[in-house]
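<instruction>
Derive structure tokens from the sequence
<data>
Labelled lines for chain and fold
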Amino acid sequence: MPCPETERLITSVGFLAAVASQAVAGFISAVICIFASRQCKDLYFHVNCKILIVALLVLYIVHSVFIASLQTVQLIRYYAISDPCQVGLPPVLCFCLRLPATVCMIAFATLQFAITIERAVALWKRREYERYGPQLGCALTFICIIPFYTMIAPIILWFIIKWSQQIKAAKLKQITQKTENERDIYFQSYSRMWNNVLSNKG
């Protein structure tokens, strides 16, 4: 089945340039965030604020890596696959690359709100906040990130189980076909031998 609209899209120089620029920007963003996260140890912020900033930077890195990987894989498929109807990513791969990036986007907002809460607490307890430990930062990070991990983990497990079931079914089918082939060979050989015996007697 022809896909003229897809063909026009994937042969458009502007579209390919946009996809490539997103991939490059993703990798550059990841490198910058890694550098920035390493510099956080020198910040003169409270430890709670540092924890939240580092958590946010880690999410930026994860998001950048997945977006860059997604666009790179997609760009490779645009050039490597001649059939425009087949250039789309397989559903499982697309899901695995897009879901973490989407979750990171949601977590960005929650972590930024958590930083606002932490700064509000610091202002409220400004006389004694310097003596506070990292409990608040860890708790806010946990609240912002763990629910998304809890949401993703069952989905990942489901994909792993489904994948293992497919492998098991494929191996079972292969073994069954091999057994049938061996039986066919055995009976064919036996039939030829029997025919030879009959022809010799005749």
Summary: Residues 135-201 form the longest helix (67 residues).
